[in-house]
Amino acid sequence: MIEFKQAAKTFQIGKRKVTAVNNVSLSVAQGEIFGIIGFSGAGKSTLLRLVNMLERPTTGSIQVQGVDLASLSQKDLRKLRRRIGMIFQNFNLFTSRTVAGNVAYPLKLGGVPKKEISARVAELLDFVGLSDKANDYPEQLSGGQKQRVGIARALATSPDILICDEATSALDPDTTADILRLLKKVNKELGITILLITHEMHVIQEICDRVAVMEDGEVIETGSVFDTFTNPQHPTTQRFIQSIQQDLPSDTLLQEWRAKGGRKLYRVIFKGEIASDPVLSRLTQQFGVNFNIVYGSIRELQEKFFGNLLVSFDGDERSVDSLLAALKETVEIEEVAVHES
Ligand SMILES: Nc1ncnc2c1ncn2[C@@H]1O[C@H](COP(=O)(O)OP(=O)(O)OP(=O)(O)O)[C@@H](O)[C@H]1O
Fold it and tell me: Is residue 17 in contact with ligand 1, taking CB distance under 6 Å?
């Protein structure tokens, strides 16, 4: 659907060169919600701007629906842009137009007859839950309502792709959740492919199917959201994951545990199907070892279970060793290091 092939974008500022996007190869499949996450300056916005040719790549290429964007005439580029809707962090609404006027704008531009426009606007406002606000002006709306208008306007030309540029970054957590639900509805009910950028990992967790992590213009990790959350490879990805799930207690607590003569702690990771297998109680019984869950959580991630538990084992050394070996065949398990402060 969208394919970046070794895409790079360099800006020349006086004598200085800034490489905003560096050798990015990525493909976004039709119908998926694909998230790009990175800290400020990672190159996310520039990458998005390459998709609708607001920026041209310095090298490499971008294909949308199999068409190389560089090969398009201005006219075809305008046509393509109508297939790509976009929403923004600061909504970018026309303050002098009503809600209905904002949503109608791209249809007017496209020369759609007046009668059809009003029917389509009514349909779109119903879809985003703002039918009663048609005649209000943006300044009379909350941030969440403004973003709903932004979404309705982006959907007006029935695009195949919706690009979201930090669409929820200006919103409070409850409103963010509402907008993310609406984006999911856009994806599921209208079959629209969504490409979003964010610096918030929980946005990725909530709605994305796949994720790419960017740093210094490069994609440093990419994969399904489940795999990336349960087994992040790059230290930057690990930092993002830790920002929303504290999977280890603090060093202070761990040191206290050890000072009080607590046994070795093991981190046990359960993923997907095996989370429903009572492996811990089954194997500890088999080897005559007691277990104590000290810390952790079992959560839902992408409609699968994901458990992350800190466990200590009480039994004779040989039995514990045999138990650990047996556990390793089913789950991921590692001893937790206690760092001295
Ligand atoms: N038009 C431009 N001219 C010069 N440098 C630019 C331009 N656009 C982006 N850059 C530079 O490219 C790098 C990547 O910027 P970009 O805005 O793509 O990152 P980002 O991940 O979207 O960050 P943020 O979340 O802060 O917007 C930065 O160093 C930025 O200063």
Answer: no
Q: Whose CA is nearest to atom 30 of ligand 1?
A: 41
| Ligand 1 close to Cβ of residue 94 (< 6 A) | no
153 and 260 housed in the same domain: no
Among protein residues, the one whose CA lies closest to atom 10 of ligand 1: 20
For atom 31 of ligand 1, which residue has the closest CA? Answer: 41
pLDDT per residue over 165-208, tens digit each?
999 998 999 999 999 999 999 999 999 999 999 999 889 998 99
Q: Where residue 93 sits, what CATH number does that domain have?
A: 3.40.50.300
Q: Which of 36, 57, 54, 64 is nearest to 166 (CA)?
A: 36
pTM, rounded to two decimals: 0.84
| pLDDT on residue 263 | 86
pLDDT of res. 161: 96
Tell whether ipTM is more than 0.90.
Answer: yes
Taking residue 310's Cβ as centre, other Cβ atoms within 10 Å add up to 19
**Pocket lining: 281 vs ligand 1, CB cutoff 6 Å:** no
324 vs 254 pLDDT, higher one: 324
**Helix-, strand-, coil-residue percentages of the chain, each rounded to 5:** 40, 30, 30
> Where is the domain boundary, 224, 244, 264?
244
Q: Which residue among 44, 54, 200 has the greatest number of ligand 1 atoms within 8 angstroms of its CB, and so is best to mutate? A: 44
The whole-chain average pLDDT of the chain stands at 91
Q: Give the separation between CA 173 and CA 144, rounded to whole angstroms.
A: 11
**Whether residue 58 sits in one domain with residue 136:** yes
Say how far apart CA 241 and CA 255 lie, in whole Å.
24
Atom of ligand 1 nearest to the CA of 197: 22
Check if the beta carbon of residue 97 is closer than 8 Å to that of residue 105: yes
